Amino acid sequence: MSRSVHVLLFYFVAHLGLIFFIYPEDIIACAEEGHWVPILVGFAVHVFFLWLFVKGLSLGGNRDMVSLYLGLGKAPAVLLLLPVFVYYAMVDVITVRAYSEIVSIVFLEKTPLWAVMALLFLIPVWLANAGIRPIFYATALVAIVCLPLFLFIFAASFQSVDWRYFFPLFDRHYGFLWDSSFYKSFFAFAGVFLFLGFVQPYFTFRIRGLMWASVLLVPFFLFSVYIPVLTFGEATASNFHYPFVVTLDTLQINWLMFERVTVFFLMSLLTFVMLLVALVLWQSVELAVRFFPRMNRGWTLLVLSAIVFGCCLRIRSWHDIELLFMWNTWIRAYIMLVVPATVYWIGRRAKKEPDYESIPTNS
Amino acid sequence: MRAFQRILKLAAALGLTVAAGTGCWDYKDINHRSLPVVLGLQTVEEGYRVFLKLPEPKEKGTDVKVVSSEGHTITKAIDQMAMNLESEVDLLHLKIILVHVNLAQMGMGDVFEFFMRARDISPKALVVICDEELEPFFRKIGQRADPNVSNLFDFFEKNAGWSPQIALSRVWQVYRSVHSYTRDVVVPIIRSGGRTTIEHIGSAVIRNGRMVGRISPDETLLFNVFNGESGQGKIEVMKNASVMISGTRVKRRGWMDGDTPRLAATLNLSVDLIELKEEMTEDQVMRQLSEQFKSRFDRLFEQVRKEKADIFAFGQDFRRCIPRERLRDWREEDYGRLKVDFRARVDIENDGYIKTKQK
């Protein structure tokens, strides 16, 4: 098996883990009708900058992102990558906290939140300690077990859709462009793709394959929003936190021995999210160690995890998470737009330089 | 030494996971939990009176116990019961929510918001309206009930006592009708029966979470057919023939004729002949049946239109032609002017062992 498969698989499942919870709520909040427009607009933005990013990487000679930036000198590199580091910490806090909230809403209502968070966080920390290779191999293993289950439940969730809710097709005002929820929804895109800038020395991937993997995600982006809308109608769906999860709760599958498929759906997506958190932690440590080589990997990870977990515990209410989401909108824009653009620019510059050397790919 | 350290680390990590993973927080064994199947709800002077029908395990089989309590809010009442019971009340397996007719007429928007918000109540639970006081109702069905079966639940179960004249509406569907612009539901009405434990006396038309009218079981069948239930097995009796419905299909199309919304609906019925009198021919049966359905539909539609309840979800067919701002007032404005052209087409699938005349 080519090593490319692992990277693409991770890209795919990590997005799945992010799509189905907060994303539908944001999209439904940002438009009253014609939700496919904001979905596809967001997706087009993502794909364009994703392409720019990986193109820049490949122009830069298939080196990792940090060494590309270091080519500019240490101070600019630190300055440019600091937002990435901060954003990563925020991604960890938000995902761990938000997902443990979902777990406690759906099935562990009496377990204290800190215990759920500890469980959700310990495994990723342990995986991050193991390194990038085990994370990718674990992804393959988990995907074999969980993807079929996920796909089955996803297919079953079409049970009570009423396609007539698809209309009206167009939103004539395009008000979503001025709605902060629309920009919040980019969380589902921004959290994942930067890992492609870190995998290079360990794994390789083909740009074309990556583009296909992202195209494969389109139906999931669309239907994560449209299944609640088609089941309940926009007027009702806009009242829900986690509209997709509510829709799953209404599924009636008599021949299945389990009554609540939601739990299984959640479990499979949670494992994907844990892998994502693990990789994000690993990347943060990688960033820190690359700039300050004297730092010990294990201790850095430990300190970082302690800080992140402390932040998770400090967040008292859902309102705080929403606030955190709003604050990091700017950093998210930076991650989604500026980082790919600069990588592309550096890549092109590196190629023109006389001492340019390409690392041969071994795929 | 390194290997030893690694094993130690691994053991610590796994141990922690196991400790956290058991989820043993405030854990109560199954024999210390009460899992009610039916929740009854009634308004009293201050707040609600909540009834819970609890199964009680006995040495042989199970017994049924009904407890009730009052409170300002539903949770308060349930909490009070939990306090007085020797076990914890766990609403996870609630299957039926029985609402007293007065509460339904007053409006159930708040109640259903609670049911949807509550983490432990399943949005799949069925909603049923009870046409008599809940206290005597539970007492009567308690006396009759075979303790081994949950009658009330079997009554609505598709693979047990359900029949196509009974509406099946779930909590999430009623909640949807509270908010949706173009969709309402009907909810079955029951009371304790003379001979049988439960008697089904028709359905309540629910508009925006409030009961606005009643329809008969035969009319409920039409509602079910329009909502995709097949109606299979229902016996349709005419003046001098009776048939059994074996399949139904509805085709509908809506369009705007100037400013009037118009809709063409065709009901395709496949039936089996069961009984014939006075040398009826197949053609006559088909014509009679189709007229019977048409007059029934026209009557029902006239009624629900007066009540401004769109139980057939006709508004859904106009999402293409009416902008959203106008759909918001669908029930008040356009629905009142809607012209429906209903046709029933009957096919006789088979006529049993006896030959019938075609014409």
Automatic annotation (TrEMBL), chain A:
GO CC, any one term: membrane
Transmembrane segments: 7-23, 35-54, 66-91, 111-128, 135-161, 181-203, 210-229, 261-282, 298-317, 329-347
Compartments where located: Membrane
Chief location bin: membrane
Zinc recorded as keyword: no
Membrane topology (UniProt): Multi-pass membrane protein
Lineage top rank: taxon: Bacteria
InterPro entries assigned to the protein according to its UniProt record, in alphabetical order: Spore_GerAB
Keywords tagged on the record: Germination, Membrane, Transmembrane, Transmembrane helix, Transport
Keyword Membrane attributed: yes
Any one of the GO BP annotations: spore germination
UniProt family annotation: Belongs to the amino acid-polyamine-organocation (APC) superfamily. Spore germination protein (SGP) (TC 2.A.3.9) family.
PANTHER family membership: SPORE GERMINATION PROTEIN A2
Protein name from the UniProt record: GerAB/ArcD/ProY family transporter
Protein source organism: Cohnella thailandensis
Automatic annotation (TrEMBL), chain B:
InterPro entries named in the record: GerAC_N, Spore_GerAC-like, Spore_GerAC-like_C, Spore_GerAC_C_sf
GO cellular component: membrane
Membrane topology: Lipid-anchor
Keywords in alphabetical order: Germination, Lipoprotein, Membrane, Palmitate, Signal
Ranges where the Spore germination GerAC-like C-terminal domain occurs: 202-352
Signal peptide residue numbers: 1-20
Pfam families per record: Spore_GerAC, Spore_GerAC_N
Biological process (GO), any one: spore germination
Chief localization: membrane
Annotated ranges, domain Spore germination protein N-terminal: 26-191
Transmembrane spans: none
Coiled-coil blocks: none
Localisation: Membrane
Cross-referenced PANTHER family: SPORE GERMINATION PROTEIN B3 (PTHR35789:SF1)
Protein family according to the UniProt entry: Belongs to the GerABKC lipoprotein family.
UniProt name for this protein: Ger(X)C family spore germination protein
Organism encoding this protein: Cohnella thailandensis
